[in-house]
Structure formats: structure tokens, C-alpha cells
Amino acid sequence: MQSSTRYSSVPTTAAAAIASFLVGMDVLIVNVALPTITAELGGDMATQQWVVDGYSLLFAALLLFAGNLADRWGAKRVFAAGAVLFAAASLFSAFAWSMMALVVGRCLLGVASALILPASMSLINEANPDPRRRAWALSLWGAGGASASAVGPLLGGLLTPIH
Predict the structure, then answer these.
(1) What positions does the domain Major facilitator superfamily (MFS) profile occupy (predicted)?
(2) What's the pLDDT at 47?
(3) CA-to-CA distance for 67 and 24, rounded, in angstroms?
(4) Per-residue pLDDT for 121 more than 60?
């Protein structure tokens, strides 16, 4: 385990809270936009379900494994790998040329999110050795994820063109 004094508390907490928000938001952002996505890319109901469930399934299935990776390889390294994969998968999904490409992108986003979430919590623990400060940082991290459930569908709707 790396030293808790290695990371600056404020930037680490901010990065972890933003990551928690993005992971939570990405679960729900496609729900409102799904009819428009299907109209543009094609696909049936089963494919629509995979756009939503591909993310959730891989995220949930790999979460414990990713936490173990963060313990073995270091939270900072796993967080960085997850963030790079998240950015690449987001870009891939944004430019998906078919529903199957979007499903692949969403599955990659689920893998990236599984890497990011436990590592972000570990980074907060490492950067905040004082229990009171750690409690405050973890509450910000949790607020990031919780607020995403409201913002995800709203942002998905705002990004969906009106026909």
C-alpha cells in the first residue's frame, strides 16, 4: 500500500468525486436517448437492452476483481488505467456506427467504471489520513455518485435531438 501522504488531499478528492459522478451518470445517460439512438443506428429491443445492460453487467461483475487489482497494483495506477479506458470507450461510443459497436463501447465503459470506482475510494483513503477529513472526502465522493442518478437522464435528454 502506498503512503497516505503521497497524494494531495483536495485534488485527489475532487478527481475521485468527479469519477464517481461520471461512473454513476454513465449508467443512466442512454435511457432517455435510447429511442433516438435506435432510430439512427437500428436495432431491436434486445439490442437496446444490451446497450443499457452491457455497461451494468460488466461493471457489477468486475467490481470486486478491480478492487483487488487496486490493492495489488496500486490505486493510482488502476485509477489511471480505468480513466484512460473510460475516455477511449466514451469516444468509441460517441462515434459508434452501429448498435453492436455501441454495445461494445458500453461494455468497455462498464469495465473502465469497475476499474475506476474502487480505486477512487482507495485514493481518497490514502490522501486523507485524518478520519474527520476522510469522512468529509468520502461524503463528497458519495454525493458525486448519488447526484449522477438525477443528472444522467437529464443530460441524456438534453443531448438527444428533437425530431
Answers:
(1) 12-163
(2) 92
(3) 17
(4) yes
Calpha distance 18→122 (Å, rounded):
15
Rounded distance between C-alpha atoms, residue 121 and residue 41, angstroms: 36
pLDDT at position 6 is 56
CATH architecture for the domain at 9-158: Up-down Bundle (1.20)
Whether the CA torsion 141, 146, 149, 152 is positive or negative: it is negative
- Cβ atoms of 81 and 120 closer than 8 Å: no
Q: Is the pLDDT of residue 2 over 50?
A: no
| DSSP category for residue 17 | H
- Give the burial class of 80: count Cβ atoms within 10 A of its Cβ; 0-12 exposed, 13-18 middle, 19 or more buried: middle
Hey, where are the domains in the chain? 9-158
